[in-house]
């Protein structure tokens, strides 16, 4: 095991449509994509596409959608460890004008205890908090063994406060800040006080506000992707997480600013494609993005 990612799995159905039908109306979409989905799940696939396949502990059912998901994971050599549920989860995603509307059908009623995994060789843990018991269990275990721990703080969840005591790198959303009732800057100071070594708040077109250790808060500007090139922003944050974890695994002694620059290139690539699988970047894609899209002011 090179790394362990933990989160809720989905099958995503992403479609482009000018209208959303109501009542007895019907509409024909211009395009669609079916792929894997979920925060830490998408991050795991990004890491694998870039060249380092992590293990993935995620929700799994005994149905045809989970079999489809396992086929997708096998394509990228991602070993799956099951957090057993009765039904697979689905997301229906409608991107439009740089935003996306989402309907989720989620089963997070886990039927069995957290599976006991061998962490030998593991260099990083990345969690999204959607399987709270597993996230906390493995964050504690990884902290004990000196393994880097990373959190996708998309929202404040039931054990987030306790979980943060075992997190080295926490990159959170603006929604996370709102739920805490804090500004982005105050949220970063909260993370620092919790012992998080590297903290950040993703702010879309404004880039990343972040700190490392005792350093002052600084901003990493986003890359300027022309609006006409932006097709689907869903999963861009997940892509960011997967790419910086890859950066760390590829070069554990590298600077976090460099890991985050790699991650912003991955996100800039991803938003130009429909669906999570089509948006997965290669290392060459990241080089091309860095050459073609300047940092915004």
TrEMBL record:
PANTHER family: KETOHEXOKINASE, PHOSPHOTRANSFERASE SYSTEM TRANSPORT PROTEIN. CDD domains: ribokinase_group_B (cd01945). GO terms for molecular function: 5-dehydro-2-deoxygluconokinase activity. It comes from Pseudovibrio axinellae. This is 5-dehydro-2-deoxygluconokinase. It holds the Pfam family PfkB. Keywords: Kinase, Transferase. The gene is iolC_2. Residues 4-282 form the Carbohydrate kinase PfkB domain.
């Amino acid at each position: 095991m090179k790394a362990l990612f933990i989160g809720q799995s989905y099958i995503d159905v992403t479609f482009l449509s000018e209208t959303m039908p109501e009542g007895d109306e019907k509409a024909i979409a211009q395009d669609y994509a079916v792929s894997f989905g979920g925060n830490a799940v998408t991050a795991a696939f990004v890491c694998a596409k870039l060249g380092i396949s992590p293990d993935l502990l995620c929700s799994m059912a005994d149905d045809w959608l989970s079999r489809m998901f396992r086929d997708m994971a096998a394509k990228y050599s991602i070993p799956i460890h099951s957090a057993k549920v009765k039904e697979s989860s689905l997301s229906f995603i409608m991107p439009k004008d740089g935003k996306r509307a989402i309907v989720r059908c989620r089963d997070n009623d886990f039927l069995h205890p957290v599976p006991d995994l061998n962490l030998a060789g593991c260099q990083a843990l990345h969690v999204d908090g959607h399987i709270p018991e597993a996230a906390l269990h493995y964050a504690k275990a990884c902290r004990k063994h000196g393994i880097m721990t990373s959190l996708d703080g998309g929202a404040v969840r039931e054990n987030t406060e306790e979980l943060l005591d075992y997190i080295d790198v926490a990159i959170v959303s603006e929604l996370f800040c709102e739920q805490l009732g804090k500004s982005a800057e105050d949220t970063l100071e909260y993370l620092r006080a919790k012992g998080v070594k590297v903290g950040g708040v993703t702010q879309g077109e404004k880039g990343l506000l972040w700190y490392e250790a005792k350093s002052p808060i600084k901003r990493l500007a986003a890359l300027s992707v022309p609006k006409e090139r932006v097709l689907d922003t869903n999963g861009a944050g997940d892509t960011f997480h997967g790419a910086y974890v890859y950066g760390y695994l590829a070069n554990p002694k590298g600077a976090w600013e460099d890991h985050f620059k790699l991650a912003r290139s991955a996100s800039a690539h991803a938003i130009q494609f429909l669906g999570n699988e089509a948006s997965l970047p290669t290392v060459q894609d990241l080089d091309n993005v860095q050459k073609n899209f300047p940092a915004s002011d």
